[in-house]
Design a protein that fits this description.
2 domains, two-stranded antiparallel ribbon, single chain, mainly alpha, elongated, about 260 residues, 2 strands, 9 helices
Length: about 260
């Protein structure tokens, strides 16, 4: 078996440098493709031995011209396909939430998760949510995906509480603007109308852990946004879409209309 010591330029997998294409992603390996073509060409030439000398000479001349045209066409085609694949890969990479990972990147991320997810679990069990917030945000800065952590939905819910508190502090120092008002309305009402109503899929333990923080959110809604519990249904109709999800645009519109009432 040939030693796979060549690296695919597209996905990073180890392949035989004489493979015509990467067996994992299908990317064309130019060196291997050329070798395969030349081997097949040599096989065709060897069959000329069964033709008599004169016919073989005429046939070889004609074949030689055709072969040269085919070789040039194949090389051009390989270059064009390679360019298309590289361009497509780059465009998709820019549009995606994360870069396309090579095999080494994926292995590194899996190793990182194996080492760090138990730490996340420990902070969750110890109610160290501030430490959890700082640790997860640092992981995001380092471009690690944490969406598959078992308590990520809880973490996201806690983040809305953090964001709302930060915006309250900013408003207390710098005053209200339509943008700050819209963001605060959105963050608070996501907590009440989505997370509090069970639309985010949190289990009973996660919801219980959030109760003291959401009591603070209710205070913000009542005392800063001047939304009473009796008016929740009216506000819900104003800011939620047909699926019951809070719309940021609708919250911006609500804040613009009621900004003078906020405290």
């Amino acid at each position: 078996m040939a030693e796979k010591n060549h690296k695919c330029p597209n996905c990073g997998a180890k392949i035989d440098k004489l493979d015509a294409s990467c067996p994992y992603c299908g990317y064309i390996n130019v060196e291997g493709a050329e070798k395969k073509y030349m081997d097949e060409l040599e096989e065709v030439r060897s069959k000329l031995d069964v033709v008599d000398d004169e016919a073989r000479e005429d046939y070889a001349k004609g074949l030689g011209s055709i072969v040269r045209v085919i070789v040039v066409a194949v090389v051009i085609m390989i270059c064009v396909i390679s360019l298309i694949l590289i361009t497509y890969s780059n465009v998709r990479s820019k549009k995606a939430d994360a870069d396309l990972h090579s095999g080494e990147d994926i292995l590194q991320e899996m190793t990182w998760k194996k080492e760090n997810y138990p730490k996340f679990d420990k902070m969750y069990e110890d109610h160290d949510y501030e430490g959890l917030y700082e640790t997860v945000e640092n992981a995001r800065i380092e471009k690690y995906s944490v969406y598959d952590w078992q308590h990520y939905d809880f973490y996201e819910a806690y983040c809305y509480y953090i964001y709302a508190k930060e915006h309250c502090e900013t408003i207390d120092k710098q005053g209200w603007t339509e943008n700050r008002g819209g963001l605060l309305v959105y963050e608070c009402l996501v907590c009440i109308f989505e997370i509090g109503d069970g639309k985010r899929g949190l289990d009973d333990d996660e919801l219980k852990r959030l109760e003291p923080y959401y009591s603070e959110i209710e205070d913000i809604v009542t005392n800063k946004l001047m939304i009473s519990k009796e008016s929740y249904e009216e506000v819900r109709n104003a800011v939620c879409d047909e699926y019951g999800n809070v719309s940021l645009d609708a919250c911006d519109a609500y804040a613009k209309e009621h900004l003078s009432e906020f405290r």
